[in-house]
Design a protein that fits this description.
By secondary structure, this protein is mainly β. It is built from three helices and 13 strands, in the order E-E-H-E-E-E-E-E-E-H-E-H-E-E-E-E. A nine-stranded mixed β-sheet has the order 1-13-11-5-7-9-10-4-12, with helices on one face. The chain has a two-stranded antiparallel sheet with strand order 2-3. It starts with a strand and ends with a strand. The relative contact order is 0.25.
């Protein structure tokens, strides 16, 4: 089968014992039903595995809904699929900067209205190292978040430890974007494999009521390119 599009995976795999966010517990991945045990219940030659995972919602590459920040905000089950899938994407390249703060001026020439705006900082290279969660990660300033919200961004993502500076207790990017029902995707990776423009972005979590955050399979679709 010949495909006229390419899919680019931009999310981390979830593994047993993996730390995503410093201070939060790692996932515990086990068998609920092992293949050996399943053989007792099925015909000869037939076996199954049923897995079990215990984890906090902020694990791997995950999406924040408004409920993550606001008690009355939309939870995962209330999110419109059109806000999560088949979005026009744009990548903002920040990986060669020495400053941690990503300010509004970097968006002066970027059309963000109706788009998934993905910030490529290159911080994913430090994934699962002490440096990743050291507090030295790139982040969006309040003015950048204000501009994204006012200009009508559909979704905002970043390949960093947090979209906000974590040196204090304020979280202006989360506060501003989620107040405007703009989902946030954190801990992306591999954004260097996406073009600046001309792709579709998908980041769909499971439909859980009463949850504000959950891992996603985030990917870009580049039309007219052979895989």
């Amino acid at each position: 089968m010949s495909l006229n599009f390419k899919l680019v995976d931009v999310c981390h795999s979830i593994e047993h014992g993996m730390i995503t966010y410093k201070g939060l517990p790692a996932p515990v991945i086990t068998d609920h039903l092992t293949r050996d045990e399943s053989r007792k219940h099925y015909a000869a030659g037939t076996e199954f595995q049923i897995g079990k995972i215990e984890m906090v919602a902020n694990t791997g590459t995950y999406l924040d809904s408004p409920f993550h920040r606001y008690a009355q905000g939309a939870d995962l089950a209330e999110l419109d699929l059109y806000s999560l899938a088949n979005l026009d994407g744009v990548v903002v390249r920040c990986q060669d900067r020495t400053e941690r703060a990503i300010d509004r001026n970097l968006l002066d020439d970027v059309e963000v209205a109706g788009k998934a705006v993905l910030f490529h900082t290159g911080w994913d290279i430090a994934w699962r190292t002490a440096e990743y969660s050291s507090g030295h990660h790139p982040f969006l300033t309040e003015s950048a978040a204000d501009h994204l919200a006012n200009a009508g961004a559909a979704l905002v993502g970043i390949d960093s430890y947090n979209i906000d500076d974590t040196s204090g207790g304020n979280r202006p990017a989360h506060t501003i974007l989620l107040a405007r029902s703009i989902p946030i995707v954190e801990h992306l990776c591999g954004l260097d494999d996406l073009p600046d423009l001309g792709f579709k972005f998908f980041a769909v979590p499971v439909k859980v009521r009463g949850f504000g955050t959950f891992p996603v399979r985030a990917f870009g679709l580049i039309p007219g390119v052979q895989p």
